[in-house]
Please model this.
Amino acid sequence: MKTLSGTQQHITASNNCPKCHGTGWVLFQTSDGTSELYGEPVMLDYAKRCNCMANAFVSEDRTEFPTIYQDCDIYKFDWSAYGCDTEDMKRVAFSFFNQFEKWQKESKGLYIWSKTPGSGKTYLSACVAKSVMLRTQKVVKYITPVDYMDKVSIGYKDKTIEPARVYRECSLLVLDDIGTQIQSEWHSQELFRLIDYRTVNNLPTIITSNYKIEDLKLDERTKSRIMKSSIVLHMPEVSVRNKKAAAEQGEFVNRILGG
Model:
């Protein structure tokens, strides 16, 4: 199976490149029919660096994901780490990646939640979103509700700029860790405007949270919009982060003692 590797990058010196259109990557598809997904032959997208990168100035991608998620893609997500059946979630995640245009037409996004910290909610959202960006070359953004409110506030204070606009209008938005703070009336209003605008304009949103939609500390109309526009993925209540940390510590101790 081909993998999507590396970080999506923007090349300021090659925006007119007919092959990569300024992304730095050229997309290809398997054509031999031997690749399989869930036992069925499929055509898989993969990418290679464009030749125009040789003499171009390359900057980091502009999704605004935290640095630890800069090199994510959907094929790197380890579904087996949970030790339980994750096949249905995997199917949905790959459908969102492979058939993003259909999800966009229906104005459907993902709501990824789990009560357990470290269960992989944000990591999965990054893997899916970055792979969509690489396949479709659409604008993808990441932000938390708190940071989004800061952007909106800046726009209210300075009418000459509108830093929140890009998050409302990007093709795919990852809204990370929603519903953890009690919202003021103003915050609730702005969050509703964001989600409602994106829903009405067929702009999917991937939302992560520690809560079920109905338990979010948000007003009912906002929860209703989220419910209408999201397919829910309940991540296993397993801290993959803790399991990984324990394994790394054990490996370190064995290496030190063995040395």
About this structure: The CA atoms of residues 37 and 100 lie 17 Å apart.
